[in-house]
Amino acid sequence: MNHDTSLNALMTGIGRQARAAAKVLAAASTETKNAALLAAARSIRAHRDEILAANREDVAEAERKSLGGAMLDRLVLNEARIEAMAKGLDEVAALTDPVGQEMARWSRPNGLDIARVRVPLGVIGIIYESRPNVTADTGALCLKSGNAAILRGGSESFRSTAAIMVCLQEGLREAGLPAEAVQSVPTTDRAAVGVLLKMSEFIDVIVPRGGKSLIERVIAESRIPLFQHLEGNNHTYVHAAADLEMARKIVVNAKLRRTGVCGATETLLVDKAVAGTHLAPLVTDLLDAGCEVRGDGATQAVDRRVLGVAEVDWQTEYLDAIIAVKVVDGLDDAIAHIERFGSHHTDAIVTDDAAAAEAFLAAVDSAIVLVNASTQFADGGEFGMGAEIGISTGKLHARGPVGVEQLTSFKYVVRGTGQVRP
Amino acid sequence: MNHDTSLNALMTGIGRQARAAAKVLAAASTETKNAALLAAARSIRAHRDEILAANREDVAEAERKSLGGAMLDRLVLNEARIEAMAKGLDEVAALTDPVGQEMARWSRPNGLDIARVRVPLGVIGIIYESRPNVTADTGALCLKSGNAAILRGGSESFRSTAAIMVCLQEGLREAGLPAEAVQSVPTTDRAAVGVLLKMSEFIDVIVPRGGKSLIERVIAESRIPLFQHLEGNNHTYVHAAADLEMARKIVVNAKLRRTGVCGATETLLVDKAVAGTHLAPLVTDLLDAGCEVRGDGATQAVDRRVLGVAEVDWQTEYLDAIIAVKVVDGLDDAIAHIERFGSHHTDAIVTDDAAAAEAFLAAVDSAIVLVNASTQFADGGEFGMGAEIGISTGKLHARGPVGVEQLTSFKYVVRGTGQVRP
Fold first, then answer.
1. I need a labelling partner for A163 at 20 to 30 A (CA). Which of A342, A407, B157, B159 fits?
2. Interface test with chain B among A377, A379, A391, A402, by most B beta carbons within 10 Å
3. In whole angstroms, what is the distance from residue A262 CA to residue A282 CA?
4. Contact, A141 vs A222, CB < 8 A?
5. Taking the complete model, does pTM exceed 0.95, yes or no?
6. What is the ipTM of this complex?
7. Structural domain count, chain A
8. How confident is the model at residue B1 (pLDDT cuts 50, 70, 90)?
9. Domain that holds residue B326
């Protein structure tokens, strides 16, 4: 067999096993699924040393290949991170099982009883980069929602992923579920991703998690629907009727609480009507907190530390302590800027004017729109949905945080007493 | 400009206008949208003669090209069909507007108020074959749900579609909405479909409506998500605990009420345990009603009119007065047959055994599963959803009948009082 043929055979085998396991999982009780999750958490704790050893090998190789510091940081596991992973599994076990829930139920005049009932999607493919904990987190969410998972981690975390996978599969077996319900692709061959993205017979949806280049590749190549966001180029708009103290608190948090998350604010828009009073304190707060500010003319006039801004800045997701600042000519101008340059992820207005707030919330076409709150709340946990597998900026099926509910589909269950259609 | 360039320019122009119109439509009130629908209905009634004249030209050309009788029948309009079209628009106006509905709303411990609010999807592309009434039906559903529509009808109905489109756009203008909210592709060039299927920048979802070869082409070529079903290879399973009289009534209706609809039963499964009493009357009813029956050995033994059945029959959506019949070895065997050969559209069990019914409803992975009712109820109107744009066998976003609700997405609207994330 040549290389392509054997890779295809390997991937098809994984796909077929996932499809078969998905049928078992779809029918599994909440108790059984939870037992598997709790057993997997115990297994991760019990095999801590093996996971750490595997991770040390991954890290050593990454250092030999001179991978960047940020990537290395994401790759490294330690006792605290392993415990967090195990705790994550315990928490997913505690979530409400969406499968079997009646989303709606009604009767027809002819007596037909119609229910819309949640069912699993089937098989979910996850393609991710260096963080090994994604293996446990996403595998757990798929399992809880009754879906089989095929995981494809980054080659740099190959050994760590394999060690964690052993624990997940141990948990599945202990609960009497097929170990193939959660599989990882057992090769670092980059061509495997290409094959995975075309296995529409075996995979119902793909969740890519990683940097922009990974997501772009997946969007370009996938023949399977995606839950994904390319980027979170988010805005906080300080409206003419914004309370200054509230705005200061929100802007600093939205930009700087954590700069690397997809809910971070990347551009601050300040209404011309309050630029005189609000712009200077807002910009000074950011500068004093160590944030680089790139501003338009009005913003540069506020503080000599403000750098110039180019059009490309309005389109940039910095994921860093950098912010673009612009003075806008009222609500419509702010909305137009967000619609033109934003990525439809998460955008906020700060205002005490209820009508302006509602106009903003209605007009901005983003997955999450907020008034008087930090964009950093863009997170399934903060929404009360439990853990999330990611955030989607697509409009089909899942939008915003993708939790266990969003990993389900539904079917119509119709109960009759002999009805026929006239 | 060469041909490809000018076609691309034409299609891009349509896409851009649709995107712009979608923004206006998303913000339009229910009253405005309804006014446009009612005005369009009036316009269709007022322009009845022009529509009929355009249709006569289409029909004359189809006859010159010797198009088949079924296609010709779908193409022909008459006064009754035009009135039905206008009435359809009135009915869509009377539907509840899904846009702006709060699907859920909850508060977080930190005081954040989170609402999940329905919003339009954006721009919907519809690719269909000969029936000119699809132009009005689907255009209306898109408009009601706040979406712009790009319609691509069959070349055989080109003039009829154009005449109906004039009325829809007249309705839009009369209500002060952009006429470009509903557009049709102004060329019969088959290459236009290929371009449409790749316009992911301008179209959010494509609904193909037509025969299997059209759907297969769309599936193969589309870079845009689809709401579609390839076929409805549906089953009615007469269980061991089925009431014979109920089963007879349901089976004849499920197969023969209308044989050309996607909810028609194509295969009858009869439980071995009741084959002795139930098989003969069920098969005789069908034969006497003029249905061709293709059966396994046990079924052929019942009546000499029964023809033999081949494996390909289990996979066939006849859309005709033909049925495949098989005696199965109990519930599990019936479920296994449906899972192996079915198309996950609509499947029914007839039984008085509640446990068997629930097992069937849970195990059969179809968009619609029924107990003691005809599969011909697979229809948005019968479900109480009003008109439907189609039935989806996909599991993402829309499954089963696709009505105005399924033509929407949602956004999260978060209202705070200055909250920042710890």
1. A407
2. A377
3. 22
4. no
5. no
6. 0.93
7. 2
8. low
9. 234-382
